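Cross-posted from the bioinformatics board.
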Amino acid sequence: MREIEASRITEEVARLCMEANFELEDDVQRALEKAHEAEESPAGKEVLRQIIENSGIARGGKIPMCQDTGLAVIFAEVGQDVHIAGGGFEDAINEGVRKGYTDGYLRKSVLADPVKGGNTGDNTPAIIHTTIVPGEALKLWVVPKGGGSENMSRIAMMKPADGIEGIKKFVLENVKAASGNPCPPIIVGIGIGGTFERCALLAKKALLREIGSTHPDELYASLEKELLEKVNDLGVGPMGFGGRTTALAVHIEVAPRHIASFPVSMNLNCHAARHKYIEL
Amino acid sequence: MADYSLTTPLSDDDVKKLKAGDTVKLTGTIYTARDAAHARLVDLLDEGKELPIPLEGEIIYYVGPSPTPPGKPIGSAGPTTSYRMDPYAPALLDQGLKGMIGKGARNDAVVDAMKRNTAVYFAATGGAAALISRSITSAEIVAYEDLGAEAIRKLTVEGFPVIVAQDCTGGNVYEEGQKKYAK
């Protein structure tokens, strides 16, 4: 049994909330630079230039790259031989979010009640997804998620007969309809299978993958490649002004499904694709 | 595509020369408002009451900035998605609002209101909030302080970078640009 202090979780979550919002990850930065070089549309190229300059200003000044510093989405993998001492696990995460969003001058975007409103004032509660795994490790992914791209995300309970062509149609139609709203160039996370709620979570998890990585199954790897090309052929372009770069990546995650169900989900991330990882 | 520098408030002549795709640097005063503030402004209009900000010739920027760090005029301040303000925008345009800044396309009702009132819709680069905040030299809350990030602020801007997304004749950079690059 390994013991981890709750206060350590709080400290790390606070730090990662700030770092995620100040420092664009290297994979996203590289993909944006590549897109800037290749972009044919003058308006699109100027958008990409601004985004890259913005990333440098945010990193250097330790200020958020986007004013929408997101809901704090946290994925946790907790080893079953870990004992969290000195406080509750979710309390420790929420305390970290509270501290990170306050100390880092990050925007508090959480309404306590979806209909009645009322800002909670500290960006809690976090959205926490925990899985228990064998071992003694505790892994955390801190993924601040903005509203603009989240609002353009979709789920469909399709028919098994819709098959792979149905998936392509669903993705392309919805990326086209989203147009400039989700702040392209986007990252497209796709979930296929599972139940209604698992399918949505698969699409969110797909956004955690490093840009340039491919699905281990050849079928899905080739579908990712094909969809990326087709999404970019839509011509939506940076901020929807038209251009060659609509998406930086398409990532697919799959799960077993019911014989009668064929759920497909699409979670979009804006170009400020923030994610930080730590193993405690 | 032309490149302009404009000073607020905007006149009809300023707006008429702008075509979708033109780039503009804005200098002067702009006001911020997003979902919650728009709902309150339109409620006041419905009740026939006076608004807390002037609209004639003015520009509203759809933004909820991040908190202001010590020593800075404002936090990061990029645009939010504009379609959420579509239900409110025509009423404000009919009161003399000349410009809006946000991101993403507007609906037909807003376009019609822009045509009948000679108004323009600008887009700023979403997610370039740290860069954009450099062109904001002062910020002051002028209404609805209780809304926090959503309060109405009066901003002084200098060379604030935008593109004409939809102009007063129906020109639309999203439709025209995307058609050009679709394969």
